[in-house]
Amino acid sequence: MTSRKFFSLFLLCALVPLAAAKLSLAMGWFSHHAVNKGYWLEHEIELLPNAEANAAAWRLVYVAPETCAQACQQALYSLQQLYTGLGRKQLQIQPLVMAPQTPQGLHEFSALHWLEKNILAQQLQNQIVIVNRDGLALLRYPVSEDAQQMQHIAKDIRTDLLRLMNYDRSGT
């Protein structure tokens, strides 16, 4: 086999998969939620710009509304349960509630800590957000009033969070 023929075959083997990937993205054949259960943020939001508190920890942030109604209470309960269910991975997680003032009933959830809401959090109102070690919001999950629905959402958050933590190399 000549070097020209080998080089041509090599280019063909490299370009065909790239062209197929480009075509599948252009035609919309790729499912964006095939791996992740949450919604990736379309633009970068540095939710915790000062990397508040423990910089070695990932954060689960619930951006609470002005008044804590049924959906808010359900989110607080789910966040507490999710944190408790992480077991030894709790050391790498910090659950936060971002609100203008301490939500009513927050004292019932020992793992959750209050953080004053900043301007950037307004667009993530009433959602649970996974925030990486650098304070950058990655995935968001809408909150539901239905307890059964919130169980599914918490399960999705857990799946995505553990996957992100396993692939994270910034802490090692």
UniProtKB/TrEMBL annotation:
Can the keyword Signal be found in this entry's annotation?
yes
Q: Which domain of life is it from?
A: Bacteria
Which keywords accompany this UniProt record?
Answer: Signal
> Signal peptide location in the record?
1-26
Q: Does the keyword Signal apply?
A: yes
User: Any idea what this protein is called?
Assistant: Transmembrane cytochrome oxidase associated protein
Q: Which organism is it from?
A: Cellvibrio fontiphilus
